[in-house]
Inverse folding.
């Protein structure tokens, strides 16, 4: 199996974003450990850590749509979540192939597998299709819990609860140090991703299911000019989502991440590119690959930057408040049982 060429601009964006996320994780660790020990940290809390709270971002989005108010506890999480949704509904599912660090690791592991065994294994359709449904079941559960199981008043109460104020620290404590179960699960996913391309992304990631649904309605998607196509099938051969690109006039599958590997593999210039639908007239002209990358990432940067510029990035919780709350976060006041949280007297 031939390794796909990768668009350099996309790869560099992935690498830079992954390094930023790693730096955020390190800074958050250096911030939370002193609080757990009853000391004041020497570094500030990085708001970007809220990007690890997608459910909180979904709840904040519902609250924003209902009240017009921005989540005061996790405003950065809302900004990141909205940016991800917007970029993925403009350039189909582009978050997965441009900003997600798991997507980058999955790509590298898949390429390692091709180097090792010469191909990426593909489960038979009778198994592949049901497995792909798992991520939608997970997303459906979280979506139901946020959009239907809780009233707007319950959402607001949850967002302002003691639990919400320390949920990022509680999440960190859950994974650090990792349990034996966590290590075993991660090892299975890593090894599995070497031989089955994008194992986590394709079958298990509820975030991928969300942006995939949004991408189904995206303005810009991969399009194929049938008049130029030579039916060489180079595009289909390199598609990480295993889509029959050579037969499609417009790749509308919720599995397509707009990675543009197929565009780079196509030997005919202009045959495959990211395009808008014909109903938009002049916009039917295709975009250069790097332009599509700039559009997708630029949308995310504008939204997140807009929150930062307007002051909706940091919350107003003081280090002193974080200090005493984090030290007592294992008390019943900070529990999350059955979808409810205790309220401070």
């Amino acid at each position: 199996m031939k390794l796909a060429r990768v668009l350099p601009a996309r790869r560099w964006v992935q690498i830079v974003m992954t390094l930023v996320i790693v730096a955020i994780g390190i800074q958050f660790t250096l911030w939370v450990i002193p609080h757990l020990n009853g000391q004041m940290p020497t570094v500030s809390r990085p708001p970007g850590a809220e990007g690890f709270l997608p459910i909180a971002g979904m709840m904040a989005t519902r609250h924003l749509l209902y009240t017009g108010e921005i989540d005061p506890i996790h405003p950065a999480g809302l900004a990141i979540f909205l940016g991800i949704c917007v970029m993925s509904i403009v350039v189909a599912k582009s978050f997965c192939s441009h900003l997600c660090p798991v997507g980058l690791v999955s790509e590298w592991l898949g390429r390692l597998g091709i180097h090792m065994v010469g191909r990426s294994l593909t489960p038979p359709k009778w198994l592949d299709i049901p497995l792909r449904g798992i991520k939608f079941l997970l997303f459906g559960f979280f979506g139901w819990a946020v959009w239907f199981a809780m009233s707007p008043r319950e959402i607001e109460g949850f967002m302002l609860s003691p639990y919400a104020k320390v949920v990022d620290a509680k999440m960190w404590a859950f994974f650090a140090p990792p349990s034996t179960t966590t290590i075993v699960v991660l090892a299975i996913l890593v090894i599995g991703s070497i031989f089955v391309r994008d194992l986590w992304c394709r079958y298990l990631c509820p975030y991928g299911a969300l942006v995939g649904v949004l991408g189904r309605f995206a303005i810009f998607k991969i399009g194929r000019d049938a008049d130029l196509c030579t039916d060489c099938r180079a595009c289909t051969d390199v598609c990480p989502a295993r889509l029959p690109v050579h037969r499609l006039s417009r790749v509308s599958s919720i599995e397509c991440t707009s990675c543009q590997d197929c565009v780079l593999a196509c030997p005919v210039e202009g045959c495959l590119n990211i395009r808008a639908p014909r109903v938009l007239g002049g916009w039917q002209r295709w975009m250069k690959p790097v332009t599509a990358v700039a559009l997708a990432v630029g949308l995310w940067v504008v939204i997140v930057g807009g929150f930062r510029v307007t002051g909706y990035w940091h919350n107003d919780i003081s280090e002193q408040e974080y200090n005493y709350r984090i030290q007592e976060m294992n008390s019943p006041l900070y529990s999350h049982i059955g979808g409810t949280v205790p309220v401070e007297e």
